[in-house]
Amino acid sequence: MTATSGLGTARPASPELLRSVFRRHAAGVAVITARGHRGPVGFTATSLASVSAEPPMLSFGIGTGSSSWPAIATGGHVGVHVLGEHQRELAETFARSGADRFGPATAWREGPKGVPVLDDVPAWMVCEVVARVPAGDHRIVIAEVLLGDPTGHGRPLLYHQGRFNGLRD
């Protein structure tokens, strides 16, 4: 280990180092949905990023061990939903393994391209998957935006220090 004045003590790269650093990084919260062979699937993502304006493209990461991965791996379209601070419970439901994500507590409808679209979100998009890039135990999915709606209400939901939080002024 190397000590550098004013920088603390550097640690070698490890999964725990990465997790510890990213716990300090506030991230927006999204739910990614898709149509699976046995019904709708979805998961909470904090890795959503804009990739390109022309054409409009975005990316997100998904673990290959995720229950949603088989549908994302083979499906052509995904729904991307930006969550508001009023949707902590929804974020927790889609983050919890084994949860009934599309049960009675989740308001949704079948949207364009058969993609599940969540109700009452600040913004949503339906996208066509154009690439799945291997990245360790995850895949980075790149998708082109086909259509969406940015006019919902609510302030953004954030993920920080292992918890879902609202934005503070």
Question: Could you list some keywords that capture this structure?
Answer:
mainly beta, Pnp Oxidase, Chain A, 7-stranded antiparallel β-sheet, 14% helix, globular
Mean residue pLDDT: 94
Strand order of the largest sheet: 5-4-8-11-12-7-6
Tally of individual helices: 3
Q: Would you identify the CATH architecture?
A: Roll
Cα-based radius of gyration, to the nearest Å: 17 Å
Whole-number total of structural domains: 1
Work out the strand percent. Answer: over 45%
The overall strand count is 14
Helix content: 10-25%
- Main structural class: mainly beta
The CATH topology label is: Pnp Oxidase, Chain A
User: Could you give the order of the helices and strands?
Assistant: EEHEEEEEHEHEEEEEE
> What is the end-to-end distance?
38 Å
Please state the oligomeric state of the protein chains shown.
single chain
Assigned CATH class: Mainly Beta
Outline type = globular
Low confidence ranges = none
Organism: Streptomyces atrovirens
Pfam families: Flavin_Reduct
InterPro entries: Flavin_Rdtase-like_dom, NADH-dep_flavin_reductase, Split_barrel_FMN-bd
GO molecular function: oxidoreductase activity
Task: Write a structural description.
This protein is mainly beta. The protein has a single domain, classed as Roll (Pnp Oxidase, Chain A). The protein is 14% helix and 47% strand. The protein contains three helices and 14 strands. Strands 5-4-8-11-12-7-6 form a seven-stranded antiparallel β-sheet. A three-stranded antiparallel β-sheet has the order 3-13-14, with helices on one face. The protein has a two-stranded antiparallel sheet with strand order 1-2. The protein starts with a strand and ends with a strand. 28% of the residues are buried. The mean pLDDT is 94.
